[in-house]
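Feature request, filed as a ticket because there's no other form

It would be nice if the structure record came with a short human-readable summary line next to the tokens. Right now we just get the raw output. Example of a typical job, pasted below so the devs can see what we mean:
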Amino acid sequence: GNAFEDDDVRGFDQSIRKYLGLGAEARLAYTSEPKIDGLSLSLRYEQGRLVQAATRGDGAEGENVTANARTIDDIPVQLKGAPEVLEVRGEVYMSHADFAALNQRQEQAGDKSFANPRNAAAGSLRQLNAAITRARPLRFFAYAWGEHSEPLAETQMAAIERLAALGFVTNPLTALCDGPEQMLAHYARIEAQRATLGYDIDGVVYKVNEIALQQ
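Raw output as currently delivered:
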């Protein structure tokens, strides 16, 4: 669901508690992380090897961008100690500094400049020529998973830490929050840093930390 007011976050917590049959006193932890304004990408690894990268598309079918994903430094092509099958989900984005430098190069070459970092990231990832993608300063934050042959961890936070241990870049502002007041406080911390993050976000995402409760 979406939240636009503080009370929406408190209401979210109350509705989750009600659904799970948890009383107001029961501890219920959440993760809180910036919502990156980029392009969703799904990476499939088999026996530790990157075999496919796909955009989200319409949610059921996306574009195969495997060759292009292999050119992004933040995306490992080989994992050590990963489940036999692991689908890693995350966001491809472009930093403000890299975006400004790219547009400067585009203008100098007499090419069209990009409207914003998200458009630049999306256009760069979807190039038919992987060499063009390689020349573009794309980055990737991993924050979720899809199909997997064995669980990464028992909690959202531990799973994110496992992704980092496998070699993925995860967002350093991801935090564990004990209830809605801490969730709101972390939102305020992220909001205060928003102008200096160096990349675009369009909100904060909260997730129930315990994966068994998510399911």
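Something like this underneath would help us a lot:
The helical segments are 6-20, 66-69, 96-108, 117-125, 130-134, 156-165, 180-193, 211-214.
Residues 23 and 185 are 23 Å apart (CA to CA).
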